[in-house]
Every structure is written in structure tokens, then in C-alpha cells.
Amino acid sequence: MPIPTHEGGLHEQGKLGVDQGYGGVARALHWTIATLIAGMYITDWMRSGAGRGSPERIWWLSAHESLGLLVFALSLGRFLWRLTHRAPLIHGTLLLRRTAEAGHALLYLATLGLPLAGIGRAMSGGADVVFFGLTVPSWTGRNEVLSSIVGFLHGGLVMNLLLALIAGHVLAALWHQFVHHDGTLRRMI
For the chain, what is the HEC assignment? Predict the structure, then answer.
């Protein structure tokens, strides 16, 4: 069944035209952010295995903070890029399209919110934040109430939300590719 394109033309469902994929900038940002998020989880896992106060733990924490700040900056860039560059059409029912739109919006929110909560967690604990060797001093000093809130967000709610969203995002891409056969996965590769 023909479906409208952003340019007003039609193409057959399941047959992606060249104009239906994401552009190079969006793809580069998507895969760079995905790789950095994996790095954030790995560095956090490595940090948790190092002895408290050890040089190794401090190194892994600094690496984790640096990657988190990069994720924030690139996610902000991706969000701004998305505001000025239309995404390809989402194929499927209204419910499927709305679900995909909500999932993408929540992914933006989580990739922006998790690093912000991490920065807040470090700073409200009285610690500086390190970005590849550059130290950003705490803006808040020690603040137990704020530390408790952002600690819950960073170490629990937003972190788990991001993991669930990533799992849903990957499963949806695989479903589109192998069950629906609509070429959606090719738009981002």
C-alpha cells in the first residue's frame, strides 16, 4: 500500500526510498551516543568493583563522569538537530506511531536527565566533576536533601528507565526488521 513521504510523494510500504533514512549526522550521533552509554555502564561496573578510595576507583569514576558529560552534550546536540531536521515517517498504525514517538521522546529525556542527575549527585555530595582531566568544582557544596533526590534519580529511576527504553528500542528495531519486514532498521544503519 503506498504511503505518503515527507516530500509529498508516495512509496510502497516496506520499500524505503533514499529520502526515508536518517541523515549522516543523525546516524553518527545515534551510534556515538549508544556507544558512550555502553561505556558509561561499563565504567560504572568497573568502578563498583574497585576498592573504595583506591586510585582505580577514582579513575573509573572520572571516566564515567567524562562519558556522561559527553552523552549529555551529544544528546542535547541530537535533540537540537532533530528539531531542525525531520525524521523519516514511522510506519504502522496510529498506536504504533504514537508509541514510537513516546519512546523516542523518553529516550531523549533519559539521555539528558541521567547525566544531569549524575552531575547533581556528585556535586550535592560535595565532590567536583571531572571531564577528561578538567575539574568542575561543585556548585552546591554538600547538600543532603538534594543528594538524596538526585541519587535516587541517577542510581535508580532514570538509570533503570534508560535501560528499559534501550531494551524496548532494540526489540522494536528487531521486530520491525524480522517480523514486520518494513525496512525500519535500515534507516539508522
Answer: CEEECCCCCEEECCCCCHHHCCCHHHHHHHHHHHHHHHHHHHHHHHHHHCCCCCHHHHHHHHHHHHHHHHHHHHHHHHHHHHHHCCCCCCCCCHHHHHHHHHHHHHHHHHHHHHHHHHHHHHHHECCCEEECCEEECCCCCECHHHHHHHHHHHHHHHHHHHHHHHHHHHHHHHHHHHHHCCCCHHHHC
Can you give the pTM of this predicted structure? 0.83
Helix axes 55-84, 24-49, angle to 10 degrees: 160
Distances (CA, A) of 14 to 17, 18, 20, 181, 183: 10, 13, 11, 6, 6
Which percentage of the chain shows pLDDT scores above 90? 72
Does the pLDDT of residue 112 top 90, yes or no? yes
The rounded distance, in Å, linking the Cα atoms of 81 and 181 is 28
Pick the CATH number of 19-188 from 3.30.1150, 1.10.3470, 1.10.1200, 1.20.950: 1.20.950
**Amino acid (one-letter) located at 69:** L
Phi, psi of 152 (to 5 degrees): -65, -45
**For residue 121, which of 74, 162, 156, 153 has the smallest C-alpha distance?**
153
**Greatest CA span in the chain, whole angstroms?**
62
Amino acid residing at 106? L
